[in-house]
Amino acid sequence: MKFQIPSLIMAILERDLRLALRHGADTLGAVLFFILAGALFPLALGPSPELLRRMAPGIVWVCALLAALLPLDRLFGAELEDGSLDHLLMTGLPASLIALAKMMAHWLTTGLPLLLAAGPLAIMLGMPSGSMVVLLTGLFLGTLILSLIGGMAASVVLGARRGGVLLPLLVLPLTTPALIFGAAALDAAQTGLSWGPDLELLGAFLAAAIPLCPLAAGAGLRAAVE
């Protein structure tokens, strides 16, 4: 059985990617929300380039966090409704690994497009080109964290009444450290300070989330089907 685990994980991942390509509204909606929400800040704050440049780290990170939330309520909900979640659990694959595969699919279909869209948004906000490496590195780590924590929260509220309302209330407080460290690293890069410690803390957060979030999500999936 242990030799079949990687192939089963890849099968789940491939299935989710095919579904995402067939129904691309979630990915497109997240990217459009990310760009449009970021574009609203210059209208509200005024056209001052210096003000926008100073606030750009927080704007990019907050918009990315909110955009990543949009597809989460359907991460496990569709499988629970049509019964395919029961079939996935009967494959013999641990529930935590099923959850991990779904989280990976969420990152590939939501986190990666947001990462690609972050560069144009940062340029629009006047962010210096020298900060782009820090921006993309931080968002790479941050979007992975968002997918892991978001998947865990989605499994916890799976099957609950008003789960879509509860989901942001769970995800937003848990992802606050990632928001703080990511925006702080980008702000430090813009002001010429050392940004390494903030990215290291972000990496430590990701290292803790990788084993813990799938385990918690697996427990949530088993509780939902029982």
TrEMBL record:
TM stretches of this protein: 27-46, 58-77, 107-127, 133-158, 165-186, 201-225
InterPro entries noted in UniProt: Cyt_c_biogenesis_CcmB, Cyt_c_CcmB_bac
Main location: membrane
Gene Ontology biological-process entries: cytochrome c biosynthetic process; cytochrome complex assembly
Domain of life according to the entry: Bacteria
Keywords from the named record: Cell inner membrane, Cell membrane, Cytochrome c-type biogenesis, Membrane, Transmembrane, Transmembrane helix, Transport
Gene Ontology molecular function terms on file: heme transmembrane transporter activity
Membrane topology designation: Multi-pass membrane protein
Assigned GO CC terms: plasma membrane
Compartments (UniProt record): Cell inner membrane
Task performed by this protein: Required for the export of heme to the periplasm for the biogenesis of c-type cytochromes.
NCBIfam families reported for this sequence: ccmB
Family to which this protein belongs: Belongs to the CcmB/CycW/HelB family.
Record's protein name: Heme exporter protein B
Organism phylogeny: Bacteria, Pseudomonadati, Pseudomonadota, Alphaproteobacteria, Acetobacterales
Gene for this chain: ccmB
